[in-house]
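User: For my dataset I need records formatted as: sequence, then structure tokens, nothing else. Please produce one.
Assistant:
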Amino acid sequence: MRLLSALCLMVTVLTACGFHLRGSQGFVFNSLAIESERKSPLVEALSNAITQRGVQVINTGEVRLFLAQERLEKTAIQVGREGKSSEYALLYTVDMYLSEGGQAGATVTSPLPSQFQSLQVLRRYAFDAAQLLARQEEETIIRQEMQDELVEKILLRLRQFQLSKSTR
């Protein structure tokens, strides 16, 4: 009985302070055209994530997303006693540009460099040459997690995108 009353009290306090679960936020558009310099796993994962959230990914969308210069850089950040790298940093970067309307495959109408947004994800991991296979597997998993995080960052930018009043 005491546990039930404590639970009820906690629920009451949480709802009184305005706390609520984030849930899924919608987009202000129903269709999206995705354009990229190359077909990559990031583009495919992003397309799947957007489709799962009820937005059509088509060639002529209300909103046009251009992904440019997707790159993954690996840098040695620590060297061990033997002169071999013992720690690496992975930096996954993608530049994106959002605009209204347009057809995928059409040239971007000269956006200013300031209109591009650069999204980055950084991970550090230790490397032991004695466990080469395990470390390669770990790097693959880290890359997948970084891709998933970039997809979430792009989705966040898409949720913040506002259409002009003429198209609403």
